[in-house]
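Attaching the record inline, Q. Sequence:
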Amino acid sequence: MEITKQRIKELLRAEDKLNALEGAGVDNWDFYGEALKEYDAENELEENREKLIHDLEVIFGECAFEPSERGAGIAFNDDAFDKVMIVLNDHNVTFGEELVE
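Structure, as predicted:
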């Protein structure tokens, strides 16, 4: 991942601004906690998505093989389905209202 010097400056300024606001007591304002709960929930959801994708990438990498000659595509061994279902259950993935089983 690459980040520009300009973006680093912006992030440092944003951090300084947040520290100044919290130092002045903004964290005692009404609804400050509620806003952070929503922010934390969104970040947790994104982290969970990234972890799910990573876990699935690992499984597909472990279970994939080339069935015949080079360039013929890939196939997955018999363990792939069970391993994917375990990961989906571990991450509480649902389709509609039902948990994946």
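The mean pLDDT is 85. The two ends are 36 Å apart (CA to CA).

More tomorrow.
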